[in-house]
Design a protein that fits this description.
Helix content is 38%, strand content 19%. With 174 residues, it is an alpha/beta fold. The protein binds S-adenosylmethionine (SAM). The site of S-adenosylmethionine has 24 residues, from helix 1, helix 3 and strand 2. S-adenosylmethionine binds next to helix 1, helix 3 and strand 2.
């Protein structure tokens, strides 16, 4: 019975990771050396609400919860294993009071309350999420995208350094 339970759990874990990889992107973390660049561009103020769409192990969300005055930092993740790791690490590093992790589909998560959004998904997913951003994000909300630009949007800042990762900042019109 226990072995059957383990087998089913393993199946769910593998299936949810494969589904997330297909829906948005497989798990590849933001480089640690880029986290301060992401933080600078997000420019989180006290009272801001932040969300990371497809947060993986929660590295970025936890870092921001720990080092900024953000009101709350939410990570949304579709892969069960990554979500569990994010929650566990958040308990271990003391960010659990400020960072929270939602198991679910980023494309269905309501974005209307957030001041700042971070995402690192595949270009196809960026294309797909644009209408949702345009419909739900509030005026002035900031969006930072890692590696790829958001199609059809003019970045406020485009960092494209030689030999390092591209990062783009966008701001919704006021
Ligand atoms: C390229 S990784 C980036 C991880 C993390 N944002 C970081 O930068 O370290 C993409 C993550 O998004 C998750 N993902 C893909 N599609 C998703 C979706 N539709 N909703 C929520 N998470 C998704 C994947 O499981 C994976 O962990």
């Amino acid at each position: 019975m226990f072995m059957q339970f383990l087998f089913v759990l393993l199946l769910i874990i593998v299936a949810s990771a494969a589904y997330a990889g297909h829906k948005g992107a497989p798990w590849v973390p933001t480089w640690k050396k880029d986290m301060e660049r992401v933080k600078r561009l997000l420019d989180l103020q006290s009272g801001d609400a932040f969300v990371e769409l497809g947060c993986g192990n929660g590295r970025v969300t936890r870092h921001l919860a720990k080092t900024t005055d953000v009101r709350h930092a939410i990570g949304v993740e579709l892969s069960l294993l990554q979500w569990l790791v994010a929650r566990l690490q958040s308990r271990l590093d003391g960010t659990a009071g400020k960072a929270a992790f939602v198991l679910g589909d980023a494309f269905k998560h309501d974005l209307s309350e957030y001041d700042a959004v971070y995402l690192f998904l595949m270009p196809e997913a960026y294309k797909k999420i644009v209408p949702k951003f345009e419909q739900e994000l509030k005026p002035g909300a900031r969006v930072v995208s890692y590696i790829w630009p958001i199609p059809g949007w003019e970045p406020t800042v485009a960092e494209q350094p030689e030999g390092a990762s591209n990062i783009y900042l966008y701001q919704r019109p006021l």
